[in-house]
Structures are given as structure tokens and as C-alpha cells.
């Protein structure tokens, strides 16, 4: 990696090369004003021996800032057409995947099915920018979905600031955009061709989205592509930068891990459940007010264990195929395998058994107007 080519806020620091003592870990767990050194200590190999006290502190912080609640959302795949060359993706351009894109009638059927679940937060997904699913198509889909759902977010290809503003004016409230990995060398290896090979276009997309009027941004790294400690520390840096420069905006962090998909890609840096827990606890301690998200990529035991223990938001009843919610839609190849297939009643029953309350709506459509983040 060439540090000189990176923005100042992401330039690597030597924290991951430091050796930490037991006293350092204990101070980090109890830190009232955590910083990057705190984060590095909690990511260190020695900190893995302190998961129980880390979990206790993470739970206390989560309850203080989020109460005993778990916000719920569901994803909706609009299209799986893609020209990208991502090695790790089941819908990459060279996969023999069954392709589909929702038309207006199919989308309305999907939305009726989702609305019947009483969910009020939705994430719309596509592959990379394609004629079948470009900005005009997304705008139409957002306008339709906004008729049914209060909070409509997107997880799609990077766009320009004017394009993000166009979608904000159509009713889009936020964007999720994972950098996949912050390691430039690994990033280039994983993205063989297509627009996604542009590391910096993707890295700076959250800035463009917020400048374009979107109110929230979700970031993360696809754990398993590169050294996970490095990527998690970069996610922390990225979140701190966004929170400082767009302090009125909402920033959240997700923890996707490599999952089985068409193409059979295997993680070079596998992240087990103990490591995942350590990363979640570390970020909760160091970013007390930031929503941490865990999707149905993860199996039941992981999601059940992490609910309220650092994690404050989860997807539910997810489908990763185009047209997966309504009975009359033709399903396509899924992007990756879902691990937690519970329906909403069963998932909510689990949450309530742990003393947690599922939140179906925490946003109102009156706040859909594009935001302004002018410095004051």
C-alpha cells in the first residue's frame, strides 16, 4: 500500500505493530474517552483473552445509548445484472447466474409482501451500474417504494453528488456502501475489471452521498478479503472522519463476512465467530453512539448472541434473490447464502426472550427532504 496516495484521515498508523500488555487491554476496556490507540489495543491478539469483560462493557454501552431495542430492516434486490469482476461475488459478470430485474408491477408485488410484514425500513440493492438498473431506474423504484415504506435506503454502485441528490429528492434517505477492503493491493486483486476497480471512487462515495443530501451512510469491510484487523481499524478511521465532517448525519457500521456463493470463492483471511465478536465489542466501546448492524449472513447462534451485545440493528426475513418476497415473482440467482432464515414472528420471539424489543419504525417520511451538511 502506498500511504502517500491515501487521504490524510486514512493514512496508516503504526498501532497494529504495537505490543500491548494486560494493563493496556484493561485500560482500553474501561476507557471513557477512547481513541485510535484504544481501538488498536482492543483488536490485539491479547485482547481476545478478554472477551467476557469486553462483552460486558459493550452491553452496558449499548443499553445506555440504544436501550433494550433492536431496529429491524429488510433488503430488496431490484436487479442482479452486473458487469463487475469481483472474485468473491455470486453475481459477478462472468458467473453463469440467472439474471433478473424487477419491473413496476413486480416491484409493487414485492412491496405489498414486505409491507404486510409491518417493516418500515428497506434497503434496495443492485449489481454494478448497468443499462438494466441505472440511476433513472433507481429513481423510479425509490419513488414507488416510498409510497409503501417510510425509510428507503440504497446499497448500489457509487454515484456522483448530483446523482445522489436526484435520488434524495425522490425519497431516498440513506446509502450503504462497503469499501470491501481498505487494502489497495488486495482491492485491485479482488476487482478484476469494471468500474468497481476504482478504489478512490468507492472510498469517497459516502462523502458524495452526504453532500448530495442523503441523511445516513453505512460503511464496512467484507471480512475475509484482507487482514481483518487492518480493515476494522480503517472502518473505525472512516467512521470518525465522517462523524467529524458530517456531524448531523447518521453513520452505521456493518460486519459482513465472506459467505458461500456461486463461484466458490474462499476467504484468504477467514474470520471466525470469536474474532467477529472481538471486532464488534471493540467498535462498540470506541464508537458508543454508532449503530452496529448484523445481517442474516450470520447464523442464528451468532445473531442471537450478539443482539443487544454491541449490535443495535439487524436485517430480518431477508431474500438475496430478485423477486424473493412475493409468491408470483420469478426468483434469480442469489448473491450469497442466507444463514438465518427465521421469519419475523420467530425472530421477534427470540429478541423478546432476551428482554429486547424489536423496533419496526424509527423514521418518519416527513424527514425525506434532502439534508444539508454545510459547516457552521
What does this structure look like?
The two termini are 36 Å apart. This protein has a single domain (68-352), classed as TIM Barrel, CATH 3.20.20. It is built from 13 helices and 9 strands. The longest helix is centred in the middle third of the chain and has 18 residues, at 228-245. The protein is globular. An 8-stranded parallel beta barrel has the order 1-2-3-4-5-6-7-8, surrounded by 5 helices. α1 (22-29) packs across α2 (36-43) and α5 runs parallel beside α6. The mean pLDDT is 90. With 376 residues, the chain is an alpha/beta fold.
Provide a short characterization of the protein structure:
The chain has 13 helices and nine strands. It is an alpha/beta fold and 376 residues long. It has helices at 22-29, 36-43, 51-66, 104-115, 135-145, 161-170, 184-190, 199-203, 205-211, 228-245, 273-286, 300-306, 344-353, and strands spanning 69-77, 121-125, 151-155, 172-176, 216-220, 250-254, 292-294, 313-315, 357-359.
Strand content: 5-15%
**How far is it from the N-terminal to the C-terminal residue, by CA?**
36 Å
Determine the CATH superfamily.
Aldolase class I
* Structural domains: how many: 1
Which tags fit this structure?
single chain, 376 residues, alpha/beta, TIM Barrel, eight-stranded parallel barrel, 35% helix, globular
Amino acid at each position: 500500500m502506498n500511504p502517500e496516495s491515501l487521504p490524510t484521515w486514512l493514512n496508516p498508523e503504526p498501532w497494529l505493530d504495537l505490543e500491548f500488555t494486560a494493563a493496556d487491554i484493561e485500560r482500553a476496556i474501561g476507557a471513557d474517552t477512547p481513541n485510535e490507540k484504544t481501538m488498536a489495543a482492543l483488536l490485539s491478539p491479547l485482547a481476545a483473552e478478554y472477551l467476557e469483560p469486553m462483552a460486558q462493557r459493550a452491553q452496558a454501552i449499548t443499553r445506555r445509548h440504544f436501550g433494550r431495542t433492536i431496529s429491524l430492516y429488510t433488503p430488496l434486490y431490484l436487479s442482479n445484472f452486473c458487469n463487475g469482476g469481483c472474485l468473491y461475488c455470486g453475481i459477478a459478470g462472468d458467473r453463469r447466474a440467472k439474471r433478473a430485474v424487477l419491473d413496476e408491477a413486480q416491484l409493487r408485488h414485492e412491496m405489498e409482501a414486505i409491507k404486510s410484514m409491518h417493516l418500515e425500513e428497506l434497503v434496495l440493492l443492485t449489481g454494478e451500474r448497468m443499462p438494466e438498473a441505472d440511476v433513472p431506474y433507481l429513481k423510479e423504484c425509490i419513488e414507488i417504494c416510498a409510497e409503501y415504506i417510510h425509510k428507503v435506503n440504497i446499497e448500489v454502485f457509487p454515484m456522483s453528488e448530483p446523482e445522489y441528490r436526484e435520488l434524495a429528492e425522490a425519497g431516498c434517505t440513506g446509502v450503504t456502501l462497503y469499501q470491501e477492503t481498505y487494502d489497495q493491493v488486495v482491492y485491485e486483486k479482488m476487482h478484476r475489471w469494471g468500474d468497481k476497480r476504482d478504489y478512490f471512487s468507492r472510498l469517497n462515495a459516502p462523502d458524495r452521498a452526504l453532500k448530495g443530501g442523503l441523511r445516513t451512510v453505512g460503511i464496512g469491510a467484507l471480512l475475509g478479503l484482507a487482514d481483518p484487523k487492518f480493515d476494522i481499524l480503517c472502518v473505525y478511521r472512516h467512521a470518525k472522519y465522517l462523524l467529524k465532517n458530517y456531524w448531523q448525519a447518521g453513520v452505521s457500521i456493518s460486519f459482513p463476512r465472506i459467505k458461500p456463493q456461486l463461484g466458490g470463492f474462499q476467504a484468504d483471511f477467514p474470520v471466525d465467530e470469536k474474532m467477529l465478536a472481538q471486532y464488534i465489542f471493540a467498535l462498540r466501546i470506541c464508537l458508543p453512539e454508532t449503530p452496529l448492524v448484523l445481517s442474516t449472513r450470520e447464523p442464528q447462534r451468532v445473531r442471537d448472541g450478539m443482539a443487544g451485545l454491541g449490535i443495535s440493528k439487524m436485517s430480518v426475513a431477508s431474500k438475496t434473490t430478485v423477486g424473493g418476497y412475493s409468491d408470483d415473482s420469478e426468483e434469480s440467482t442469489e448473491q450469497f447464502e442466507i444463514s438465518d432464515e427465521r421469519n419475523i414472528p420467530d425472530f421477534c420471539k427470540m429478541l423478546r426472550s432476551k428482554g429486547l424489543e424489536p423496533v419496526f419504525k424509527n423514521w418518519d417520511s416527513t424527514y425525506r427532504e434532502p439534508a444539508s451538511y454545510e459547516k457552521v
